[in-house]
Every structure is written in structure tokens, then in C-alpha cells.
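Lab notebook, design round three. We kept the backbone fixed and only want residue identities now. Task for the bench partner: fill in a sequence for the structure below.
Input C-alpha cells:
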């Protein structure tokens, strides 16, 4: 939980500012969008003016979180650089890392003195003077919930739904190790305030495309085990993506199925982005710290879910990452 100093910082900054821009990381997920929407509802209740500007579009399965009066705008330098430059406060949500801002990095760095960062990721570099970061929080929406409630806000139905989506996303529907009693207590309160758990699961998890489903089938059929059966590996090359028409689908959830295998505690998915780049998704259970593993290759994320984009071929990336992963698993097993 965040301390009284963080609450005071939040209140001071919010009270002093009249206009806000909210932003988050590349490829916004449920916690990113949930944090933006819930904080926006709070700021509107205070009569504040705000814009929400993201680098990437809101995925279709998260659009139900966005109430009609809010617009999550897609960053266009010609329009939004002036918005970032003119806002009293820029709130960076669910992201501390400048390199996860994409093309927005330059303009947000330029505004750094007016940036408040609210996040739960461990960060390598944090150039933001105002930050409320709690690595123990299982979602950024938990921090937003605590800050806004302490500031006297009662989430309405839309805010409660948005907060719940962040909590459900980042705890894997209340099953990851980060899931605390506190997370369930907040969830209970959010249900009382109107969040709909059945709809949340349907929207988030039951809108898979045929292409994704076929790619999942391919991945399950081709999975390999290594590291004494602890590491499950899937390689997806461009040919497979074309055959399954899955070039644009999000493959990160395939790891969930891999981790369901008995004995597997680390799932690694290598996906060929083009001839020179490979995306690596890392998921783990228990003590295997994939954030550290990803960090060795310039990637980032959380202890149990991280990602890397590597230059090189699919086989080259797999060789390098798997060599490190096997050593990590051995060290973990003997430690
Ligand atoms: Mn998050």
C-alpha cells in the first residue's frame, strides 16, 4: 500500500492543476486503459479538463471500458505535442520507462518537470520528479483506487468497471502470485460499485479470432520442452503467421496454455516479427524471475511476465535466450 506522503503528493498536484493529459505505455492493456479511464472519471468529478493520448489504439476487447464521453486519442505529433506542452500536469500511468512511450518519449521527456508517474513496474530509468510507484501493488488501478478514494472519490459504475479490469488483467483473474487479500477486498468493493465480473471475462478472454485460435493450435502442437521439462518453448515464424492469417494477433496469451503443462514453470514464445527482429514473450510461475532475464537482453516487464524485442533471426534469438533460461532454471532449482 502507498504511504501518506504519496497521498499528499497526489492531492497537492491534482489540486494545483487545471488541465491534464493522461498517457500510458505502448500497446495499452487492461491495466493501462483501466487506470486512464478511472483517473479520468475522478478528474472529471473534480471539474478538471483532460485529454487521454496513447501511442497505440485501444484493443477491441477493451473498448467496453471506455465510456462514451471519453476519447482515447491516438498520438499525432502535429496535434498532441502542443497538448502535452500546454497541460498543467501529465500523468503517466502503468509505465515508468521512457522507452515504452514510443514516439511520445521526446515530448513527454520535454514535459518531465510536469509529469506525475503512477506505476507498479520496476524501472531501470525514471526521469520523472513526481512519482507514486509501488512495486508491490498488483495493478496500477489498485494505486489509482487508493489515491482517488483517499481523496474523497466514490467510483461510479464506469470507474469501478475500469478499475476492476485493471485488477483482473494484471492478476490473471486473481490467480497470479501477486494476488493479495487486499486485491480481493478492492475487487469486492468494485463489484458493490457496479463492476461486472462475467462481462469482464467475456470481453477480455472470449473474443478470440479464428486466426488466434488456429495459431494457438499450431503452438500447442509444436511445443518443445527443455531445461529438464521446466521450460516450454514455442517458435512462430512468418510462414506460420501467414498460414494462420495471424500476423497481427497478440500471441502473449499462448504462454498461459504452456504454463498449464505439469512441471512447466517457464514459457517462452519466440515470434518472428520480420527478417531482422524477434519478439520474445516470457512467462513464469513462482520464483523464476523473467524480468531479470528480459533485462539482460534489453527487455522489461514484471517478475512473472516480461518481453523482449531482439534483433537477429528466430534461431539466433532462441539460442541466446534459451542458454540463459536453462542456467536460470538450474540456479533456481539448486537455490
Ligand atoms: Mn499494470
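Proposed sequence:
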Amino acid at each position: 500500500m502507498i504511504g501518506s506522503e504519496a497521498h499528499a503528493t497526489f492531492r497537492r498536484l491534482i489540486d494545483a492543476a487545471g488541465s491534464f493529459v493522461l498517457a500510458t505505455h505502448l500497446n495499452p492493456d487492461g491495466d493501462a486503459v483501466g487506470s486512464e479511464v478511472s483517473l479520468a472519471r475522478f478528474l472529471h468529478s473534480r471539474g478538471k479538463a483532460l485529454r487521454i493520448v496513447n501511442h497505440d489504439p485501444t484493443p477491441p476487447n477493451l473498448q467496453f471500458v471506455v465510456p462514451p464521453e471519453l476519447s482515447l486519442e491516438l498520438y499525432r505529433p502535429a496535434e498532441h505535442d502542443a497538448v502535452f506542452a500546454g497541460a498543467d500536469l501529465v500523468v503517466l500511468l502503468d509505465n515508468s520507462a521512457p522507452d515504452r512511450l514510443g514516439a511520445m518519449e521526446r515530448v513527454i521527456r520535454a514535459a518531465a518537470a510536469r509529469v506525475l508517474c503512477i506505476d507498479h513496474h520496476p524501472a531501470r530509468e525514471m526521469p520523472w520528479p513526481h512519482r507514486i510507484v509501488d512495486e508491490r501493488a498488483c495493478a496500477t488501478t489498485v494505486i489509482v483506487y487508493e489515491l482517488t478514494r483517499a481523496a474523497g472519490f466514490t467510483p461510479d459504475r464506469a470507474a469501478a468497471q475500469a478499475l476492476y479490469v485493471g485488477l483482473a488483467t494484471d492478476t490473471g483473474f486473481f490467480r497470479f502470485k501477486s494476488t493479495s487479500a487486499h486485491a480481493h477486498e478492492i475487487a469486492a468493493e468494485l463489484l458493490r460499485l457496479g463492476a461486472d465480473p462475467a462481462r469482464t471475462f467475456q470481453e477480455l478472454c472470449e473474443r478470440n479470432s479464428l486466426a488466434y485460435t488456429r495459431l494457438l493450435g499450431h503452438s500447442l502442437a509444436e511445443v518443445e520442452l527443455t531445461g529438464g521439462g521446466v521450460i516450454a518453448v514455442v517458435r512462430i515464424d512468418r510462414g506460420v503467421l501467414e498460414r494462420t492469417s495471424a500476423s497481427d494477433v497478440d500471441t502473449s496469451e499462448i504462454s498461459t496454455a504452456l504454463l498449464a503443462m505439469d512441471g512447466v514453470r517457464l514459457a517462452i514464445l519466440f515470434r518472428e516479427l520480420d527478417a531482422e527482429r524477434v519478439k520474445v514473450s516470457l512467462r513464469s510461475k513462482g520464483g523464476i524471475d523473467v524480468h531479470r532475464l528480459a533485462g539482460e537482453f534489453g527487455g522489461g516487464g514484471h517478475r512473472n511476465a516480461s518481453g523482449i524485442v531482439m534483433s537477429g533471426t528466430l534461431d539466433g534469438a532462441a539460442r541466446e535466450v534459451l542458454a540463459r533460461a536453462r542456467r536460470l532454471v538450474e540456479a533456481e532449482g539448486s537455490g
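Keep this in mind before ordering anything: The chain has a mean pLDDT of 95.
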